[in-house]
Amino acid sequence: MNDVPNILGEMNDRSREVFRRVVEGYLADGMPVGSRTLTRDFSEKVSAATIRNVMQDLEYLGLLDSPHVSAGRIPTQQGLRMFVDGLLEIGNPDETDREKIDATFGSNEQDVSGLLDRVGSALSGVTHGASLVLTPKREAPIKHIEFVSLSPERALVVLVFADGHVENRLFTPPPGQTPSSMREAANFLNALIEGKTLSELQTSIQTQITSRRQEIDSLAQALVQSGLAVWEGEGDQIERLIVRGRSNLLTEDGESEDLERIRRLFDDLERKRDIAEFLELTEGGEGVRIFIGSENKLFSLSGSSLVVSPYMNADRKIIGAVGVIGPTRLNYGRIVPIVNYTAQLVGKLISDRS
C-alpha cells in the first residue's frame, strides 16, 4: 500500500484541489465526478483535459477509481482514508443536532440501560445511519451468588451485588446437575467472592479451581465454568450491544448487492460472540476513530464505514462506546462531531450517576 501521508505531502496545490473536490462531490451525492464538472468552479482557469490528466495521475496512485468508462471518478478506500486523515475539517455539531441529542438526556430516570437504548435511537435518527451503543459492564463487587435449577436443560444464576442490585441469568447447565452440585458450586464461588467484581472473579477462578480441585467435584466445576461463561460472554445486561436504525441502511433505491451487504452486516452483529471486539476498536486512544470499508475488522464485509468513540467513567476508564455505521460515503464532517459529542455526554451521565 502506498504511504498515504507522503502522497498528500508530495501533491501540488492543483492535484490536492482536484482530489478534494472529487471526494467532496462523491460524499455529497454518491455519484462519480467528471472533469467538466470540476472546471466550472475550479479555483484557477484550467481545461477539462488538464483536469483529466490530474485525475489519471490520482488514479495511478490508487486514490481514485473509474467505475465506468468516461463516467468520472470516485475515491478508493485508500483515497477516502487519506481525505479523512489529511483534508477533512471537523467542527462542532450544529445546534439542531445537539438539541436532538440533548433531549435524550433530559430524563432523570436511573435506568442507564434504558437511557442508552434511547441514545441509540436518537443517534440513528440524527445521523440517518445505524447506531451502535455498547453498554458498560456492571463492575460493582458481588455479595452473593446462587444457582437455581429450573429444568434439566435450564438453570438460573442469581447475582446480588454489594450496591443492592440483583441480576438473574438463564443458561444451559452441563448434563447431570443435581441440587447438591449446584449448592456446592455456589458455596465454592461465594467463598471466593470477597468483594470481587465479575471481571476480578473471572481472573482468579481458573487458578482456584485447579488448586482446590478436591473441594469441588467435576460436575460443580463444569457448572461454575458455564455460569461464568454466561456472565462474561454474551450477558444480556452486563455487556450489551444496542443496534438501532437498520432500516436507514435499507433504502428503496438500493441495489440488490447493497441490500445483501447490509443483511450480512446485521447478521454479523446479531451473532457476534465477542461483543467486546467493538470496544477494542476504540483502544487506540481517546476521541473518535473512523474505520473505512475493510479496515473495519468487526464486520466481514467492505463497503461500510464505522465512526466510533469510547466513553469513560469518572476514573477515565473506557467502559463502553457509541458509533454509527453507514456507507463509505458518509458525511464524515457532520457525523464525527455528533458521535464525539454523544460519547462525551454518555460518559458524563455515567460518571454523575456513579
TrEMBL record:
<keyword id="KW-0805">Transcription regulation</keyword>
<keyword id="KW-0678">Repressor</keyword>
<dbReference type="InterPro" id="IPR023120">
    <property type="entry name" value="WHTH_transcript_rep_HrcA_IDD"/>
</dbReference>
<dbReference type="InterPro" id="IPR002571">
    <property type="entry name" value="HrcA"/>
</dbReference>
<keyword id="KW-0346">Stress response</keyword>
<dbReference type="InterPro" id="IPR036390">
    <property type="entry name" value="WH_DNA-bd_sf"/>
</dbReference>
<keyword id="KW-0804">Transcription</keyword>
<dbReference type="InterPro" id="IPR029016">
    <property type="entry name" value="GAF-like_dom_sf"/>
</dbReference>
<dbReference type="Pfam" id="PF01628">
    <property type="entry name" value="HrcA"/>
</dbReference>
<comment type="function">
    <text>Negative regulator of class I heat shock genes (grpE-dnaK-dnaJ and groELS operons). Prevents heat-shock induction of these operons.</text>
</comment>
<dbReference type="InterPro" id="IPR036388">
    <property type="entry name" value="WH-like_DNA-bd_sf"/>
</dbReference>
<feature type="domain" description="Heat-inducible transcription repressor HrcA C-terminal">
    <location>
        <begin position="115"/>
        <end position="336"/>
    </location>
</feature>
<protein>
    <recommendedName>
        <fullName>Heat-inducible transcription repressor HrcA</fullName>
    </recommendedName>
</protein>
<comment type="similarity">
    <text>Belongs to the HrcA family.</text>
</comment>
<dbReference type="InterPro" id="IPR021153">
    <property type="entry name" value="HrcA_C"/>
</dbReference>
